């Protein structure tokens, strides 16, 4: 792609005076991108702020129509939007075409789900007191700063921008340094659907400029709300800036998803779900299955089931992670587990499909993994799976379940989990004890139904995307109280003023 990806600031954005390169992890330089300056950030904020009165005053029905038109464009086989997004995603990242196509093909469902609940989510409602009526309305914050990660770029960019826009906010979108072109195309899709260009501005920020320019974005008094999807490390920095300037935030951060196999779990069926949940997109999903908790008496059955499923998978290969540094970090976590006694449970396949280069990793299943190993606590964000054994010999089943739940909760993260058991009522009861935002009974941990609130507990973030809860997190309430009867004068002498 011999292009320079520009910022999108109003009707006419000046030609870039400086650029930075986007580099594919294995293929090298992809294209150049406008390197935003402090002046560009100021222009983006000013443009979105000036557009706020008109966009906030646009009837909800019209805002909904724009989002539905964008969803239609995305799914219209006569249009090129979907193919452009897929092509850009694959060019900029190590994501496979299948992963990019699957995300792109599902994004419209999230858009339609938001539109479907918008009337109920944003409707005013009344509260009657003893002598007055209070009307509560949901109002947009104003200018919202949005930042979305690269690893599920279509869905993450959609919810970061469409949710605040639908609620009546204008948006300044700071792209990921990894996927600026994909996110640029997304903004152009919204413009093509009828979104006023000033209501959504897009700025690209080079890695070395990010600390200063992100601080400028968050601290500006015209920016009233922040949403961020990314790592817990960076999220904590953004949250600190937002706290300093008293800005509300919605954040989805890292995860360490656990999958619990109860004593009555269908392990043969669960095995394929475990492998898919662990290795989709080379494990580069915040909801990836990182740890499986299994009773000791079922450990050998689990290992055999995982080996059988993996042996039948015909596309084994080393997959590139998004940076060489990330791959190096994951190798260190795996080596630490092996040094502390964990076994490489598909070692023969790893030997046959050795890592192709410094940035690529072959999937790894390790077990048993215990608390002495970094893999037990650290989010790998790579193609690793840790098996954690729960002793069950001679123990009451209730104690085994207590131990399993305690270890599943023994993490700073709380985004997604899964519980497997043939007795679904009991599995659901166990799910209710897991400290995280979503628990899926007899399903994969990477799951995000469009109609269902999505977000984390603990260090996995706060606030919610999706559905009614998601829309309401991008609004603030106003209460107007009207007395039932006109008031008379107060007896000031009866008061201690």
TrEMBL record:
UniProt-listed Gene3D superfamilies: Aldehyde Dehydrogenase, Chain A, domain 1, Aldehyde Dehydrogenase, Chain A, domain 2
Task: Tell me the Pfam families matching this sequence.
Answer: Aldedh
Residue ranges constituting the Aldehyde dehydrogenase domain according to the UniProt record:
17-480
Would the keyword Transcription be found if you checked this record's keyword annotation? no
Report whether Amino-acid biosynthesis shows up as a keyword of the record: no
Q: Which residues form the signal peptide?
A: none
Its keywords, alphabetically, are:
Oxidoreductase
For this protein, the record's SUPFAM superfamilies field holds:
ALDH-like (SSF53720)
Q: What is this protein identified as?
A: Aldehyde dehydrogenase domain-containing protein
Q: Which organism is it from?
A: Vanrija albida
């Amino acid at each position: 792609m011999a292009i320079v990806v520009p910022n999108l600031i109003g009707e006419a954005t000046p030609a870039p005076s400086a650029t930075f390169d986007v580099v594919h992890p294995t293929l090298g330089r992809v294209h150049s991108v406008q390197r935003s300056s402090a002046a560009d950030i100021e222009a983006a904020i000013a443009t979105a702020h000036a557009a706020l009165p008109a966009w906030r005053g646009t009837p909800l029905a019209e805002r909904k129509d724009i989002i539905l038109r964008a969803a239609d464009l995305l799914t219209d086989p006569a249009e090129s939007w979907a193919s452009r997004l897929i092509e850009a995603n694959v060019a900029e990242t190590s994501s496979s075409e299948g992963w990019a196509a699957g995300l792109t093909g599902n994004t419209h469902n999230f858009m339609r789900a938001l539109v479907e609940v918008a009337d109920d989510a944003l409707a005013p409602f009344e509260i009657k007191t003893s002598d007055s009526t209070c009307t509560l309305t949901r109002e947009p914050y104003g200018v919202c700063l949005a930042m979305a990660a690269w690893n599920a770029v279509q869905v993450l960019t959609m919810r970061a921008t469409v949710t605040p826009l639908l609620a009546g906010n204008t948006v300044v979108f700071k792209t990921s340094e990894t996927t600026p072109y994909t996110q640029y195309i997304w903004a152009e899709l919204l413009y093509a659907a009828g979104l006023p260009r000033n209501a959504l501005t897009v700025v690209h920020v080079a890695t070395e400029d990010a600390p200063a320019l992100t601080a400028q974005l968050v601290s500006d008094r015209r920016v009233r709300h922040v949403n961020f999807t990314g790592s817990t490390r960076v999220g904590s920095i953004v949250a600190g800036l937002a706290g300093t300037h008293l800005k509300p935030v919605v954040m989805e951060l890292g995860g360490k998803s656990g999958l619990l196999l109860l004593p009555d779990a269908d392990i043969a069926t669960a095995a394929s779900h475990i492998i898919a949940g662990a290795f989709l997109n080379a494990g580069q999903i915040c909801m990836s299955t990182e740890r499986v908790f299994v009773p000791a008496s079922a450990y050998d059955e689990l290992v055999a089931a995982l080996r059988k499923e993996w042996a039948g998978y015909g596309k084994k290969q080393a997959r590139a992670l998004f940076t060489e540094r990330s791959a190096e970090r994951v190798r260190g976590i795996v080596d630490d587990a092996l040094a502390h006694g964990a076994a490489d449970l598909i070692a023969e396949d790893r030997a046959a499909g050795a890592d192709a280069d410094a940035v690529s990793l072959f999937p790894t299943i390790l077990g048993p993994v215990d608390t002495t190993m970094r893999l037990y606590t650290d989010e790998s964000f790579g193609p690793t799976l840790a098996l954690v054994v729960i002793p069950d010999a001679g123990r009451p089943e209730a104690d085994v379940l207590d131990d399993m739940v305690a270890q599943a909760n023994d993490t700073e993260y709380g985004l997604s989990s899964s519980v497997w058991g043939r007795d679904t009522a009991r599995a659901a009861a166990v799910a209710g004890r897991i400290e995280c935002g979503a628990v899926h009974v007899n399903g994969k941990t990477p799951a995000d139904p469009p109609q269902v609130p999505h977000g984390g507990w603990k260090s996995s973030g706060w606030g919610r995307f999706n559905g009614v809860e998601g829309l309401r997190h991008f609004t603030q309430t106003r209460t107007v109280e009207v007395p039932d009867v006109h008031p008379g004068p107060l007896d000031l002498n009866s008061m201690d003023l």
